[in-house]
Amino acid sequence: MKTPHQIQFEAFAAAGGLYDERHAKLYADLADDLIEDGSFSILYEGVAHACYTPITIDKASHLKCHVLAPLAVLPDYQRKGYATRPREEAEKQLDADVIFVMGEPFHYANRYNAPHKVLPPVRTQAPLECWFARELTPGALDGVGDSTSNISGPYAAPLMWGHPSEQV
Ligand SMILES: CC(C)(COP(=O)(O)OP(=O)(O)OC[C@H]1O[C@@H](n2cnc3c(N)ncnc32)[C@H](O)[C@@H]1OP(=O)(O)O)[C@@H](O)C(=O)NCCC(=O)NCCS
Description:
CATH topology: Aminopeptidase
Number of helices: 5
Largest sheet: 6 strands, mixed
Helix content: 25-40%
Number of domains: 1
Structural class: alpha+beta
CATH class: Alpha Beta
Strand content: 15-25%
Bound molecules: coenzyme A
Shape: globular
Distance between the termini: 29 Å
Number of strands: 6
């Protein structure tokens, strides 16, 4: 059975585009660090892995929120729903109001489609169009308006929110 580190490394190493093996190591190490730090971790059927870390919306600190990262599916198993099923399972287990994720719209825009004005917890050059929210409690973000957010632990490192071209 592959470890979370192996799944993350192999997925990002094979992703191409902006990513190479240095990114793969960075994100695989992040996964290990998050697990060590107590973030929620889900390993699905030995082929998919994801971590979820608590994040606080400063103007709505009563909401239970998590941010998803990193997410990976082994190359041979991609485009078959293996990224979707562990997220469904994680959302059941987490009992959260909102899940945030930073990433490509083609991966996330459908599932994480709640309009919101919550800023990412770490300063980043990434466009806000890539910062998505999914309400697990319907209407959770209604009326929250503009807010900053906060995160601690390994995913609070500014490097992890940088553009891939600046990360290695
Ligand atoms: C991104 C990744 C986790 C998706 O895994 P997957 O098993 O192929 O995804 P699924 O089959 O469950 O599909 C999830 C969604 O992404 C979409 N999708 C997945 N790969 C896609 C691609 N290459 N192009 C366009 N859409 C894609 C699917 O259509 C689906 O959309 P929906 O939620 O609107 O139905 C996987 O490709 C991967 O590990 N890539 C390398 C690591 C990575 O890039 N992680 C994300 C960083 S932001």
